[in-house]
Structures are given as structure tokens and as C-alpha cells.
Amino acid sequence: MVALTPISRKPISFVAPVMAAAGAFFGIFIGTANGSTLLGFLIGGALLAVIAVAIMKMDLPEKPVRWGLIVAFAVLGFSLGGIPGAVVGAAFGWFTGWFAYWLFEGRYRAKVAPYLTSGQVLWHFAFRVICGAIFIFLITPILVVMPLSFNAEDFFTFTPEMLRFDPDGYSLKHYRDFFTSDAWQQSLWNSVTIAPMATILSVGFGTLAAIGLSQPHVPFRRAIMAILISPMIVPLIISAAGMYFFYSRIGLQGTYLGVVLAHAALGIPFVIITVTATLVGFDNSLTRAAANMGADPVTTFFRVQMPLILPGVISGGLFAFITSFDEVVVVLFVGSASQKTLPWQMFIGLREQISPTILAVATILVVISVCLLTVVEMLRRRSERLRGMSPG
Amino acid sequence: MSNASEAPTPDDGLRLMESADTGPVLAADGTPLKRSLGRALRRQKLRALMLIAPLLLFVLLTFIAPIADMLFRSVENQIVSDTLPRTVVALKDWDSTSGELPSEQIYEAAYYDIFIAAERKLHTRLGSRLNYELTGASSLFRKSGRGLDDIGEVYQDQFEDLNKAWKDGETWAQVMGSDAWLSEANSWGKSSGKLAPALELRDGIAELLPKTAESYSSFANFVRVDDGDNPASEDPWSLVYAALWQDLTSGADVSAYSGPNADLLQEAASAAQDFESISFTDGFAEIDEDWVDTPIWQTIKTYSPKYTSGYFLNSVDMKKTPDGPALRDEDQRIYGLLFKRTMFMSLVITISCIMLGYPVAWILANLPARTANLLMILVLLPFWTSLLVRTSAWKVMLQQQGVINDVLVWLGLVGDGDRLVMINNQFGTIVAMTHILLPFMILPLYSVMQTIPQTYLRAAKSLGATNWTAFWRVYFPQSVPGIGAGSILVFILAIGYYITPEIVGGTTGTFISNRIAYHISSSLNWGLAAALGAILLAVVLILYWAYDKIVGIDNVKLG
């Protein structure tokens, strides 16, 4: 991004106190961890203030100083807390170097509007820090699960060996568990057989209905739409209860077909929503042109309309698939033990706290969701490009 | 150019109509245009409906019908009148508020009903149904199923002492059944694979011995259908002996009877007057003292109609009493608390989602597209990750031996001995659900904020507004639709959540949905589960309606 504002070096009276404040803040944690909060506070503040003054007074070259700081803090960290300490120290060293020059050179001003007051600049960056914290809140739980799934112990937390990066602390045993245990493999197989069938049902019916709904004159459109979307809105526990009562009346409770039908019903709103959204941009004169040239409605549908709305159909299908694949409440009630799906097995594992195999499964599922997310994003961009809309 | 004036133009029709108003405008095939258009429109509508019909049917069958069934179950109460038909009729005239015990007739009706129900093993089901309303009813009915035999056996023994022939099922069949039926039944074999022939009463026996005929018919039907045996050769229930004794002592003129075993019957009629007897009231009292107390009868009377509001009253901490609905005792009220807690926690979750989602949506909408798209992944990844994965992640993070506590202990902010309790309480539920539902807040907010031009804020500032004024008076009002859409979505989703509260909620952080699940799978009180579900559904539908008004269901966007 281009610089908005010309930048200049800042006076020592600004840089040193800010650096000292940052140092004092981090010093509190290190100090507490090592026994004395006050001492950490003072030493941290003083240390960073001295670094700032040294850099500015001696006008040291940037690159070597920053590398030097990383090494120095890594060593300091190692002496205090072993290998994890060294990693944290190196990160802190990198931050100190970057932060010092960022302040000293006035780089923080470069990308904000020149007319902002210093208070506004401060708010600008404080706001970003807040947003960063929220993003961390969003992503940390998912990131924490992954390394823990390689835990060599049956703990749900990091062991000292893991923190020391000791190879003995890591193992693939939970993955081995997952791939060799009959219960897990059976549930994986159930999930893999239920979800695609449910997806096919919801995509088949849903696409047809979405095309019907996008016609210009549909009587009772709102009412029909409300009914078709309702499986997404009605709380799962209510759907599950109703289906349990009703399906046991008609003998579908505890059968494969019952679970597939229930999951198909839950996936339908997603197909309807994504496909109707794609059809909003569909030019109806294309079908008329095709009919004009002698194509019958079926040919028109498969040769003209389908290729154009395919991205919407696929992403609707992926939504339906993930809905069924992740669904646990309805299958818990509608299914029986022989329809135990992967999420169901996870739910049991979590409630009864059997083993961290769950974390291995979770990691595998996260990888699957990353793949699905990528596909959906690519499809969305492609469809927007096709319809002449700018991406993003 | 010269051709242009001769070529047909769209308004030719209009001109034609003006020049010659001889009739309606005609379409190419000669039909009036209006009708032709109407037909085309109709055909178009029909085609659209044909495309929608399969799915609509599918959703109606697999989804709407179950919901309707659940709503039906929340008021349905046929079990009482189906199992105790005579008692329900007899109780109609009993004044349940008088404090008097029911009359002997009612006990008699109950004896017949419960005896038959016990033979068909239905009395325990009724017992557990009534147990929801009156604790102890379940064991009372179970006991009575066994104990009611004693009443009939008093008479059975005396009849059998009088004449061994009464012991024999065939004697009974000859007296009660018609000759045609008897011969048919005697030639029937179990191996035929068909049911034994249905009982046909002997002419006049129903008038002569009404109670015996009725109870023998019930017995014969039960043997025939439920056991698949031949009623003509089975020994009757002790109930039938009691009925016969009643008939004989209430002045049946058996001298008029001329069928088989007439001598037996006459002998019994003259001896029956001197039989040792037991009143039904005493018989019930012998089984359990509770039968000679009013509550159980009040409960049966209160729940005798086919449909009841009892489940709904139950789910708002009220109960039916003889004097109408009344609040439950203080210590039995749980659902009001649960509904309030569900509402409160959903509200807190919604507010936290707004607080966390607003800045994120703002920064996503205001960063350059490339950076925003990258950061968007951080929002979409949790959105696409399995709910179970995220819930297990929070379980891992929040446990006492979990990651957050470990970090806090490592930093020395918390002593090793007093680790924070962050799971199995409301805090755990709120944190985990805020995280899980946050994307549902960010996405609608983001799509609304994308449409608000940044220049408005700059314009406001250049006109002298402070940062805060510019935001509060210019930007915020325009983002309110996004907040509304996101809040309703999050609230609707939060209010019906089950999995996360179940795993991280412990006992204080659970929602009404956990209670519903408990009633379906553990306490088996399906009616109450259905009523709780119906109330929850009503709340959600109101919110759904509001969502439709504010955002429109067509405008729901995904991803």
C-alpha cells in the first residue's frame, strides 16, 4: 500500500517512554512467572527504554540490531524457561526490534491519513489490536487442537515434553487409535454412507424447487419459501424430537433411510438459498433462445441452465453435505446404534471423556473443512467472475 | 427507411384497437389476447408449482409432519380413557372437590378396567403416565396389577368348591358361546395359522348375565388375539368369576336358561347368595391404602379427557388441580427458571457477539479487498469447522487442567492450587457459544457494512464532527439493519442449542433444550418434552417472523 503521509524520525522523549511502557507490560508476566511482579515490571521497562535510547543515540543500522535483539532475547528466554522460553524470547526480540524502529522512524504514521491527531492515530492502532485479539479468539481453539492431537500422553493439555519440543512428547498414537478402532471406523463409514445420500436427495429436489421458485409468477411464494427454509430455523432439538416421535410411529426410527431422510430435510434450506442466489443473476432470455433454436426443456436445462448455475448447486451441495456430516442432534434421536456417525461418536467421547482420539478426529475434520472451504470460495469467485461481478 | 412505416410495430395493436373498436384484441391464433395471456400465465404458474411440488411434498412429509406430530403429542392424552374406559365414565358424576371417596360402582369399574389392562400389560404404562402428575402412581398401578387377582379369586375358589366343573374352560365356553361358535372353535387348531374364531355369545346370555358376558367377551378376545390361543379351551380369568357372582346375586333369573350346564348354573345361583363376599372398595384398600384416598382418583378424573392442557401447564410450572390450574410448590418450579436462563444466556451471547462481531465486520469492510479476503478466512474457517470440533476445542481450553489454566499458572497469574473453574458452568457455555455463533453475526454485519460508503464518515468529520459523533450519528444508524439481522439469527440459533451446553454447561449452564432431550431419552415423558418444544418453537417462530420482516428470508446469505 502506498504511504499516505510523509514520515519523519520521532524524538527520544516519545520513543523511550512508549518502549518502556511496553517493556513494563511484558515484564509483569515474566516477573510474575519468576516470582516478583514488581521486579519484572521495573527491569522490563528499564531494559526496553535503554535499548530505545541506545538505538537512537548511536543511530545503529537496523538489520543487525534487529537480528541481535532476536538472538539476545532468545538466549535470555532460554536461561529463564528452557526451549519454550527461547521461542517466546525470540518472538519478543523480533517484536522489540520491529516496534523500536516502527516508532523511531515514524513508520506508524505512513499508512494513516495525514490530518489525524495523535489521539486518533493511537485509536487507529488500538482498534486494530482489539480486532486482532478477536481474530485470535476466533482461530485459537481450532489451532490449539491440532498440536494436542499429536500428544504422546492421554492428556487434553500440553505436556512439559511437548513444550520442550522433545520428540518423545509427540506421537501419532491417537491417529493410530482412530484408524484401528472398530467403533471409530464404523462411525466414519456410517458418516460416509449417510452424508452423500442425504446430499443427493437435497440437491436433487432443492435445485428443481429453486428453479421453480425463481420463475416470475409463483403463487404463495413467500409461504412456500418459509416452509422450505424452516428446517434451518427450527431449533435442531425440536426437529429431532418431532422426527423421533413421527418416525417411530411409521417405523423409520433407527433405520438408515430415516437418518438419510432427516438429514436431507435439514440440508434443503442451504441448497435452496445458494441456488436461488445464483439464479438471481441468471438471464432467462438464454433459455428462451435455446427453445427458439429447437431445444426441448430437458436439453435446455442440462445444456444451458445447469452449467451456468452449477457453482451454486455445488456449493449448496457442499453445505448440505457438511450439514449432514456434522449433524449430531437429529441422528442421536432418529438413529440407532448401527447408524452411529462420527459426530455422534465424538459426542459420546466428549461426554464420557474417554480419550484424546477425539482431538485426532477433530484435526482430520478441520483439514476436511479447510478443503471444503477452499472449494466453496473458488466456486464463489468463479461464479462472480462469470456474472461480471468483482471478486470480494 | 421507406419500409419502416410499413413494418409492424408494437403499438400497432393499440392503433388497431383505437381505429376499429369492434372487439377484443386478438392473439396470433385468433383467441382474445387477454385470454391467451391468462392461459400462458396459468401455464407458467403451473410449471413453477410442478417444479416445487416434489420438494414441498418431501419437506412436508419428512419435516413438517414430525413437527405437527410433536405439537399433537403435547396435548394428546388418550391413554387414560383408552385404558380405563369404564372408570372414566363412572368418575364423571363423582365430585372430586367434595373430599368424599368414590362410590362402590367406581371401584367396580376400576376393578374391571385395571384387571383387563393388567392382563394386556398396559397398566404399567398408564401408571408411569399418571406418575408424571402424581408421584407414586406408577408403583400403585404395578402393585394393583398383581393384587386385583385376589378379589376374583375369592369367588373363583368358592365356585370351584361348589362344583369342579367351574374349573374347566369348556364349561364356561358352553355356557357363554353359541353352538355354532363352539363347534367352529373345537375344530380350530393352532397350526392353521389363523386366529381362533371370534366369540359369538349364546342367545339371551347377554341379557341374563350382562357382566359375565361382557367380561367373558374381553377374556375371549384377549386369548384369541393377544395369545393366539383358543378361548373355548382356556380357563377364564378370576374376573369372570367375580362378574358371575355379581350377576347371580343381583337377581338374574337363571331358571329361564335352558342351554348346556343349566343345572350347574342353577346350583350356583342358589349357592351364590351364601358366598363369602368382598366389596371392591375393600379389595382396593387391601392392595394399597392410597386407593382409599382421594388424590389418585382426582388425578384420574383430571386427566380423563382425550386432550389435556396438563403438559403445557407443567412446562410453565403449573399443575391441574380439581379447582383449576395452580402454580406448583416453590421447590418444584424448574421450567420457569430454565426458560428464563435460556433467554438470559441467549441474550448475553447475542450481546457478546455484537460486541465482538462489530469491530471485526468493520475492519473487514474497510480494509483493502485482498487483506479483507485473507482475514475473512479466519472467520469462515471456524464457520466451516464441525461444531463438535469447536466444542471439544473449548473443552480442551477451559478445563481445570486445560490450556488456558496452564498458561495462567505458567505466567503465575493463578496459583496451581486455585485454578479457575471455567467449564461446566454458565461462563463456559457463554464463551464457547459466543465463539461458535460469532461468524453468524459477522457475516450479515459485514454484508451490510460493505454497502456503507467510507466517504460518509469523512464527510461528517470534515463538517466538524468528532470521531465519536461521526460514528454514532452517521455510520452506526446505517449498520443497524446488519445488527438486527445478525442478532436475530444468533438469538434464534442460541436459544435452541443443545450440544454445546450439554458438553460444557454442567448443571448451571444448560438450556431448555437439554431438558427436552432429557424428557425424551431419560424420563420418557414425551408429552412434556413435546410441550416444552412447542413453547420453544413458538418463541423461535415469532423471531423468525421478525427476521422475515426485517431482513427477508430470501436475503439470507451464506459464506
UniProtKB/TrEMBL annotation, chain A:
Topology of this chain in the membrane: Multi-pass membrane protein
Coiled coil: none
Subcellular location: Cell inner membrane; Cell membrane
Keyword annotations of the record: Cell inner membrane, Cell membrane, Membrane, Transmembrane, Transmembrane helix, Transport
Record-given protein name: Putative spermidine/putrescine transport system permease protein
InterPro entries named among the record's database cross-references: MetI-like, MetI-like_sf
Pfam families registered for this protein in UniProt: BPD_transp_1 (PF00528)
GO annotations of cellular component type: plasma membrane
UniProt main location, coarse: membrane
Annotated family: Belongs to the binding-protein-dependent transport system permease family.
Gene Ontology annotations of biological process type: transmembrane transport
Transmembrane annotation, as ranges: 12-32, 38-57, 86-104, 125-150, 188-211, 223-247, 259-282, 308-334, 354-379
Automatic annotation (TrEMBL), chain B:
InterPro entries per UniProt: MetI-like, MetI-like_sf
Pfam families on file: BPD_transp_1
Membrane-related topology note: Multi-pass membrane protein
Record-level GO cellular component terms: plasma membrane
Keyword Membrane: yes
Family affiliation: Belongs to the binding-protein-dependent transport system permease family. CysTW subfamily.
Name of the protein this chain belongs to: Putative spermidine/putrescine transport system permease protein
Species this chain originates from: Primorskyibacter sedentarius
